[in-house]
Design a protein that fits this description.
With about 170 residues, the protein is mainly β. It has 1 helix and 10 strands. The strands form 3 sheets. A 4-stranded antiparallel beta sheet has the order 2-1-4-9, with no helix packed on it. Strands 3-10-6-7 form a 4-stranded antiparallel beta sheet.
Length: about 170
Amino acid sequence: MHSSLFCAVPLCVAFATALAPAQVIYYHGSPDPYWGDSDGVPFYSGASYSSLHVYRAAELHDAGVSPGSVLTDLAVNSVQGGVVYTAPTARVLIGHVAGDPLLPTGWLANLDAPTVVHDTGSGPYTLYPASSTWISMPGFAGAGFTWDGVRDIGLFYTEVPGSKLP
């Protein structure tokens, strides 16, 4: 069992729709079949870590997200407040899933032309959570990822040793 600062599932994803840019649709991801609602994905403390979280196209459609919608926010719900999470070197990408089933190794290989949200040369990736509060993950608002309305979406996160909770 690992300790976790964040409930990664559900994640809250906000889209501005193509037909009504002022309309924002919030989608809460389904529980992960392996970890449930208390997964440390996409954040972990202490070691090298990589993950891929998938948002299914059918669930996005059911939530009212339309093709051409732009991702405007991705938020996690903290289970612990008052501490800062920082990864000195991290990489965060979001993209359309290239195929199904997912490749069991090389998480990044599952994404087709992903959008870079944060890269290893961008400095530390830091979040300032408050307990039981949705907090926006840095970089998603300006990334400009647009959903094609057909394929699943994958969120890839990786960090190196030294990521920590003070």
